[in-house]
């Protein structure tokens, strides 16, 4: 294929630029002679230079900034780099480094990426969306910056999150990057620090009423249907109540999902499936206590309930096995401060603000932390769980790292090696009593990119909870028994593309079986999904080389 751009303009289009990998014939035909060094390098040699330059950086934030700059100039080489060693680069381009990058977003900003849509554009949202150059957008990841990771209201600084999330669609599951649009809906911020920061990039106004915000989001969602009719909207890092209510508002009408509600739930469900394999139990045998009752906690609880219903429980029986504890104490039936989606988990129980006392009373087998409170799982908490359980499941899911409810070393040490543990961030192996424990990372990037690839392949008209349950089961099935025996309940990140392609194929089958696909069902789902996977390889632009290639064939 020949690009529509030539010369200097071609070199400044990151989706077309090959930098030092242009051949002599391409330089001649595309007006690049003299604009590049007199070499023609392989992608492998380019990657070697990137790795050399990254090695000179002293911090992961410095490496993040370098890689974002690379993405701005050479998209193919960026993905070649990240996909060459996912276990190394995912923590740099996403969690935990993305948290620091968002905190400094306005200060490290180099240039625009994605779209920025202010509430001041109400009434003209459709026209604004038409300014995006790619007309076939399949995914928009959108945030209002209301609750970024465990960092709170970051306003426009949260724009780094949808940028990073969509990079993982490609790096982890092979969704072609040209179909992805990161979006920040700017409705202001209540973060006073940013409102007075001269380098802050967002509207300098406090957040609007819920009614005004939802009206703005309504216009945005409707406009997407008209401008990008094949598009799935991925809601990300909204405040807890908004996350749940906006998902409820649109999920039965449009192709939308919320990763904090459903993606987090999916990856935790995958871990629980493998935890029960280790213990020799079922999901419905477990009793769960959550620290945190916001959108992530409720999303987790709801999906685990759905999975227990698949095992034969009624919904009420499933809900009775789940208890939640928040900043005001245990959710129980006398509390008057609960919102609608919390009430199914407010069971009859004496009021308490003592978390350890709640553990003693409820006797949970599984402890799930979504509190964003670093160190909340104290030694007393872990020791209590270990006293009442032979194999307590401890999931410390909050991130970034300093927000984790406990570290892997703490969980294994305080439980004397009894805990089945995973965290929202990656911790190193722990050596204790002559054994090596492998803590897993319960990170959504095992789930949402695979869901994305399945939607991309099938053009699914809706996103259902059943799709996340199937994704969870597919991810869980890919952890071999020898790793389960070392306590690892998630697949190795080094093979994440293969893991997610297999997961995407299983979810795609469910989409077809459910009648939600908008394309014809292929004969071989696995090979079909694989044929759609993006490969970070430069195309051949030279007409001369293309003719010679065809002749050789």
User: How many helical elements?
Assistant: 25
Q: Which bin fits the share of residues in helices? A: 40-55%
* End-to-end separation: 17 Å
Question: How much is the average pLDDT?
Answer: 94
> Which CATH architecture of the domain at 97-261 would you pick?
3-Layer(aba) Sandwich
Structural class: alpha/beta
The level 1 CATH classification of the domain at 97-261 is Alpha Beta
| Whole-angstrom Rg | 24 Å
The CATH superfamily of the domain at 97-261 bears the name: Malic enzyme, N-terminal domain
Q: Runs with pLDDT <50, length 5+?
A: 549-553
Q: What can be said about the biggest beta sheet?
A: 7 strands, mixed
The portion of residues forming beta strands comes to 5-15%
Shape, per Cα inertia axes = globular
Strand tally is: 14
CATH topology of the domain at 97-261: Rossmann fold
What's the arrangement of strands in the largest beta sheet? 8-7-6-9-10-11-14
Structure description:
- With 553 residues, the chain is an alpha/beta fold.
- The chain contains 25 helices and 14 strands.
- It has helices at 7-11, 24-29, 43-55, 60-73, 75-84, 86-93, 97-103, 105-108, 125-129, 160-173, 192-195, 210-227, 240-250, 259-279, 295-310, 315-320, 355-362, 379-388, 408-414, 448-458, 465-476, 481-484, 496-513, 525-531, 543-552, and strands spanning 115-118, 139-143, 180-186, 232-235, 256-258, 288-291, 322-326, 329-330, 366-369, 393-396, 420-423, 430-432, 435-437, 440-441.
- The strands form three sheets. Strands 8-7-6-9-10-11-14 form a seven-stranded mixed β-sheet, sandwiched between helices. A five-stranded parallel β-sheet has the order 1-3-2-4-5, with helices on both faces.
- A hairpin with a 2-residue loop joins strand 12 and strand 13.
- Helix 4 crosses helix 5 (75-84) and helix 14 (259-279) crosses helix 15.
- It is globular and about 75 Å long.
């Amino acid at each position: 294929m020949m690009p529509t751009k030539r010369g200097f303009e071609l070199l400044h289009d990151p989706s077309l630029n090959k930098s030092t990998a242009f051949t002599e014939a391409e330089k001649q035909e595309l007006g690049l002679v003299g604009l590049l060094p007199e070499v023609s390098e392989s992608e492998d040699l380019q990657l070697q230079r990137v790795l050399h330059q990254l090695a000179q950086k002293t911090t992961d934030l410095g490496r993040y900034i370098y890689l974002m700059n690379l993405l701005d100039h050479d998209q193919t080489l960026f993905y070649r780099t990240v996909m060459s060693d996912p276990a190394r680069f995912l923590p740099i381009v996403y969690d935990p480094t993305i948290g620091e990058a968002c905190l400094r977003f306005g200060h490290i900003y180099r240039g625009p990426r994605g779209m920025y849509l202010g509430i001041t554009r109400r009434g003209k949202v459709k026209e604004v969306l038409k300014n995006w150059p790619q007309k076939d957008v399949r995914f928009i990841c959108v945030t209002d910056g209301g609750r970024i990771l465990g960092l709170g209201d970051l306003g426009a600084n949260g724009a780094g999150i949808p940028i990073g999330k969509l990079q993982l669609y490609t790096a982890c599951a092979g969704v072609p990057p040209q179909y992805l649009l990161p979006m920040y809906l700017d409705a202001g911020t209540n973060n006073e620090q940013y409102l007075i920061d001269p380098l802050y990039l967002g509207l300098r106004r406090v957040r609007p009423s819920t009614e005004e915000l939802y009206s703005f989001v309504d216009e945005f969602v409707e406009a997407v249907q008209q401008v990008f009719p094949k598009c799935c909207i991925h809601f990300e890092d909204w405040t807890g109540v908004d996350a749940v209510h906006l998902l409820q508002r649109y999920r039965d009408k449009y192709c939308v999902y919320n990763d904090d509600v459903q993606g987090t739930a999916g990856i935790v469900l995958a871990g629980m499936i493998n935890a029960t394999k280790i213990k020799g139990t079922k999901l419905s045998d477990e009793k769960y206590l959550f620290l945190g009752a916001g959108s992530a906690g409720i999303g987790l609880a709801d999906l685990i309930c759905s999975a227990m219903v698949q095992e034969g429980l009624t919904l009420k029986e499933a809900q009775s096995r789940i208890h939640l504890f928040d900043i005001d104490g245990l959710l129980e039936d006398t509390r008057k401060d609960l919102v609608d989606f919390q009430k199914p988990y407010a069971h009859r129980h004496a009021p308490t603000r003592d978390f350890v006392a709640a553990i003693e009373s409820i006797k949970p087998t599984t402890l799930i932390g979504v509190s964003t409170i670093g160190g909340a799982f104290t030694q007393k908490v872990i020791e209590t769980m270990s006293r009442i359980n032979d194999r307590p499941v401890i999931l410390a899911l909050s991130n970034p790292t300093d927000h984790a409810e406990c570290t892997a070393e703490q969980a294994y040490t305080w439980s004397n090696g009894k805990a089945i543990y995973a965290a929202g961030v990656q911790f190193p192996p722990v050596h204790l009593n002559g054994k090596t424990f492998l803590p897993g990372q319960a990170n959504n990037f095992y789930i949402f990119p695979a869901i994305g690839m399945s939607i991309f392949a099938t053009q699914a008209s809706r996103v259902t909870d059943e799709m996340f349950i199937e994704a969870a089961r597919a991810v869980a099935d890919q952890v071999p028994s020898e790793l389960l025996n070392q306590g690892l309940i998630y697949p190795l990140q080094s093979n994440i593309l293969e893991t997610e392609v297999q997961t995407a194929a299983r979810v795609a089958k469910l989409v077809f079986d459910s009648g939600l696909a908008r394309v014809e069902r292929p004969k071989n789902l696995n090979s079909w999904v694989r044929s759609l996977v993006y490969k970070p390889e430069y195309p051949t632009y030279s007409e001369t080389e293309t003719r010679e290639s065809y002749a050789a064939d």
